[in-house]
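Input record, target 12 of the design panel.
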């Protein structure tokens, strides 16, 4: 039953995360192309966009797919300064794999492709606003069926708040 509860809670949390990730492609500022790898010039330009928009340096993060992290960043010969693998025990930083130019890098397998491009983003916390009631998981034993029913739900809302506080990063899918 514990495994079932974890599975349904994961499904609800995944829907919430997917709603947030879908907003990345709505940012009007874009770097990279669907024909190339993540380049240092793209990283620097994304940071420059946020600097020009006067987004505070703190509360920024890169959100990248596993392909962008392992095939583009880790395989690159470009010295990315402070990029390093350093997992953290902070529950808010799940998926944290290191820092890139002093900015945390969050990797998620849920970040996928859109319109032939791998998608990622550099985001300040003001770019997207979200709220949720949290994932609610409950179970109920039904004697006539000799089984326990497990249900989960989550109420949430997401919206792009400040367009200039986010940059969509595009790369090739392979």
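The sequence produced for target 12 reads:
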């Amino acid at each position: 039953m514990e495994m079932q509860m974890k599975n349904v809670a994961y499904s609800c949390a995944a829907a919430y995360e997917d709603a947030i990730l879908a907003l990345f492609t709505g940012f009007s500022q874009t770097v990279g192309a669907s024909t190339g790898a993540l380049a240092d010039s793209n990283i620097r330009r994304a940071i420059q966009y946020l600097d020009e928009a006067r987004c505070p340096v703190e509360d920024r993060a890169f959100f990248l797919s596993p392909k962008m992290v392992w095939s583009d960043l880790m395989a690159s010969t470009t010295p990315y300064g402070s990029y390093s693998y350093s997992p953290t025990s902070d529950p808010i930083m799940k998926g944290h794999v290191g820092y890139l130019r002093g900015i945390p890098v969050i990797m998620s397998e849920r970040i996928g492709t859109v319109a032939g491009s791998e998608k990622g983003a550099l985001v300040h916390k003001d770019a997207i606003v979200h709220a949720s009631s949290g994932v609610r998981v409950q179970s109920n034993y039904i004697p006539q069926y000799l089984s326990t029913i497990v249900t989960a739900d989550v109420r949430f809302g997401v919206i792009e708040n400040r367009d200039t506080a986010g940059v969509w990063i595009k790369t090739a899918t392979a």
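The chain has one domain: 2-171.
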